[in-house]
Specification:
The protein is an alpha+beta fold. The protein is built from eleven helices and 19 strands. The protein has helices at residues 18-28, 36-46, 73-84, 116-121, 172-182, 188-193, 233-246, 331-348, 351-354, 370-380, 430-449, and strands at residues 47-49, 63-65, 100-103, 108-109, 112-113, 137-144, 147-155, 158-163, 167-169, 185-186, 200-201, 213-220, 258-262, 273-278, 294-301, 309-311, 322-324, 382-383, 413-415. The strands form seven sheets. The chain has a six-stranded antiparallel beta sheet with strand order 3-13-14-15-12-18, covered by helices on one side. It has a three-stranded antiparallel beta sheet with strand order 6-7-8.
């Protein structure tokens, strides 16, 4: 799919916190520049914001960023409720501080999704040096004498090869390490066991894999508010037709119009938790469940210390890799999630939400004790679909790429995608991935000119 995740995601525009990029800088040390100050020009160069124009935001770039043109009644109640629970109202979580409750900023322009394909690829379609090939499956990177010289792929059941002076891999945190290992770049013992010739022993390929775990907490409403009915059956069809005719109505938004960031241990501190306010009942955090109106809080641990792994199932390029997400294998992540759920319960009892929510949590578990909450977390946790880190950047010998995103041990080969993040950012990963790609291109061009 052209545009990758940006063509199917929730379109949330979030950059994270300054300390996220300080960790990136620490990872590369004196070998590169990846601090927030280094990244900010790339965010600004890309952005076309419909509301903010200041030192943290810009207009005129190719990537549209907008605030909701209307916020439904249930999300407005959430915005009030979290203020009643002790958070400040923050009009811009991408500004000087992330802390507070806010309207969600989205990559929407002209009431249409602004994916990376819309923002960057489509305007370049007429370039003579651009050749886009879809429906292809990459088998491996072609490497000769320690240098990447091309790519082997299949299309219409035919295996083909294409050659280049340099190869840039942008397949994401799941497919990039898979392609590296299929190419003989990865943990030597694991590759040998699958009959793959080792080109370069890189033990951390597929390691450091992590993601934002999402814990849903839901309650039904006593009145008909939110988007539960609007997102199902004939009403969903009617809203789709309305959008096609007027670019207005429930189908013109991403369906998540408010969120909050907080530290459950100290509401004055920098956030460790993100919480989206989804105006439907949803068991999986995405699609509606049942007919009765309701609200689902999507609780996200922002800076998880837990790490998983990604390995090859076999040497077949068509096989999906084996993934261990590693959620909550670090006790601190679980402790923060428990505190976050407790704070969500407090917000649900606030005047603005208690007036419209049923007193009980949807389901049998009422989340009153830590044991209740832990059981709920273990049963309900799902992915926020923010995989990163499996080809991490760093100055140390085990890092997969260096500060210029060059694959260590192989000449003429770079990775530019979320897999290079040493640690995940405090928020949705789409905007930071696009910005790091912009920085990666600058580094590539600077190296070519050197």
């Amino acid at each position: 799919m052209l545009g990758g995740g940006s063509s199917i995601n929730a379109m949330v525009y979030a950059r994270g916190q300054v300390r996220d990029y300080a960790s990136w800088q620490n990872a590369v040390g004196e070998t590169g520049q990846w601090s927030f100050d280094d990244m900010l020009p790339h965010f600004l160069r890309q952005e076309n914001n419909d509301t903010f124009h200041n030192g943290r935001h810009n207009v005129g770039g190719p990537l549209s960023v907008t605030l909701p043109h209307g916020i439904n009644e249930l999300n407005l109640a959430c915005i009030r409720a979290f203020q009643e629970a002790g958070l400040p109202y923050n009009p811009d979580y991408n500004g000087l501080t992330q802390r507070g409750v806010s309207p969600v900023q989205t990559t929407i322009g002209g009431q249409k999704r602004c994916s990376s394909a819309v923002a960057f690829l489509h305007p370049a379609e007429e370039n003579e040096n651009l050749d886009v090939r879809t429906g292809c499956l990459v088998h491996r990177i072609l490497i000769e004498n320690g240098r990447a010289i091309g790519v082997e792929y299949s299309h219409n059941n035919q295996v083909r090869q294409v050659y280049a002076n340099e190869v840039i891999l942008c397949a994401g945190a799941i497919q990039s390490p898979k392609i590296l290992m299929l190419s003989g770049i990865g943990p030597a013992d694991a590759l040998h066991s699958l009959g793959i010739k080792v080109v370069h022993d890189a033990p951390d390929v597929g390691a450091n894999f992590h993601d934002h775990p999402l814990v849903p907490v839901s309650a039904h409403c006593t009145v008909n508010v939110g988007y539960q009915r609007d997102s199902q059956g004939l009403r969903a069809v009617a809203n789709g037709i309305r959008y096609l005719l007027t670019h207005d109505g429930p189908a013109s938004t991403n369906g998540i119009e408010s969120n909050c960031y907080f530290d459950p241990d100290d509401l004055e501190a920098e956030p460790t938790i993100q919480c989206f306010h989804l105006p439907i009942i949803s068991e999986n955090g995405l699609s509606p469940t049942g007919k009765q109106a309701g609200l689902t809080f999507e609780v996200v641990v922002l800076q998880p210390a837990s790490r998983g792994s990604l390995k090859l199932k076999d040497a077949n390029p068509e096989s999906f890799p084996l993934i261990d997400p590693g959620w909550f294998n670090d006790a601190e992540d679980l402790r923060r999630a428990i505190g976050a759920v407790r704070f969500i319960r407090k917000a649900m009892r606030s005047p603005s939400l208690s007036a419209i929510l049923e007193p009980n949590i949807a389901g049998e578990n009422q989340l009153e004790t830590d044991e209740d909450i832990v059981r709920h977390i273990k049963e309900k946790t799902t992915t926020m679909r923010h995989p990163v880190g499996s080809c991490r950047m760093g100055a140390d010998d085990r890092a997969v790429v260096d500060a210029h995103l060059r694959v260590k041990g192989i000449e003429g080969f770079r990775i530019i995608d979320a897999s290079i993040m040493p640690n995940i950012v405090s928020g949705n990963t789409n905007a930071p991935t696009i910005a790091l790609a912009d920085r990666g291109v600058d580094l590539f061009l600077a190296d070519r000119r050197a």
